[in-house]
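User: I'm writing a short methods note and want a consistent example. For Outer membrane protein beta-barrel domain-containing protein, I'll paste the sequence; you return only the structure tokens, no commentary, since I'll be parsing the reply automatically.
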Amino acid sequence: MNKVATRFLTTSMMSLCLLPVATQAQETPRSDKHYVGLLATTIEHRSIGRFSKEDAWSQAGTLVIGGHLNDLIHAEVRMGGGYKDAEINSDFTLAIDYYGSWYMGLHYPVGELGNVYAQAGFTHISGEATLDNPDERRNREFQEFGEDYPSSSFSFSWIAGIDFELIDSMYLVLEGGKLFEDTDTSANAFQFSSGIRYEF
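Assistant:
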């Protein structure tokens, strides 16, 4: 093999070896990225009623906007709106009109699968309770609910979840946590969500 061919092969091999390093160096660090997500959220309303402590489910959609403060810490805001009410019985329904949340949390990579995360913050909720035939015996325990639900519109919230990278910068999100607790009626709600998050 002549010297020209040897030099060409040596140069080519070095270029191929250095290419992944150069590509990795050009990638944006996660600490500099922001993200946006769209989630389908199921809300479980618990401890409804003074005596029976009923459970019921409603549905909502959630928009997530956030950013990574460093490699482990993130902050985000969420805006959601309900589209299916929780029916306690044929006379009593609970509706979440909209909610807004602010969270700060920690995320930690799990190999190449994705990340586990936990976050805590505060949520403002606006909704309404509708009670027909309040004087019927089965409905008397729900008379403590006013038209506004929950009556305490601000509450502490938390979420734990996991994400899986589907393609570059696109993640499948699975999570659950507490959305709010109504201090006047002791009713509380948990949120369970799945959806897509894109980082940029």
